[in-house]
Design goal:
Strand order of the largest sheet: 2-1-6
Helix content: 25-40%
Largest sheet: 3 strands, mixed
Distance between the termini: 31 Å
Strand content: 25-35%
Number of strands: 6
Oligomer: single chain
Order of helices and strands: HEHEEEHEE
Length: about 110
């Protein structure tokens, strides 16, 4: 489970951001996780308390996770559609000349300071 290392890295990043911006308390951190990323959101939530327990700045911080839809685009008809619903076949023209255009992302979207 690499999620513990990920949330520890997030905690370090947020602590650095807070120090640079004179933030004394962080209310929440919002992450965006793509449906096709190798990250399991449930594990992030489970590991987060262990990663922030020793930090006065982050101990009471809420972790929020937004799931980003995996989308494909057809190179034939330019239709954008959900990869999870249709995989690699375009639901409009039926061709398989498609490309995954989203769903692999992993970002810190927002840090809410109080």
């Amino acid at each position: 489970m690499h999620e513990l290392g990920i949330v520890m890295n997030i905690a370090e990043t947020v602590e650095k951001f807070a120090a640079e911006n004179e933030v004394t308390q962080v209310a929440s951190i919002t992450l965006q996780v793509g449906e096709l990323s190798s990250i399991v959101p449930h594990y992030l939530l489970e590991c987060f308390p262990a990663a922030v327990d020793r930090s006065d700045l982050l101990r009471d911080t809420e972790l929020k996770i937004e799931i980003l839809t995996a989308n494909c685009m057809c190179h034939i008809c330019n239709k954008v559609y959900s990869f999870m619903e249709n995989r690699k076949t375009c639901p409009l023209c039926g061709k398989e000349d498609t490309e995954i255009i989203s769903g692999r992302e992993f970002f810190i979207k927002e840090i809410e300071a109080c």
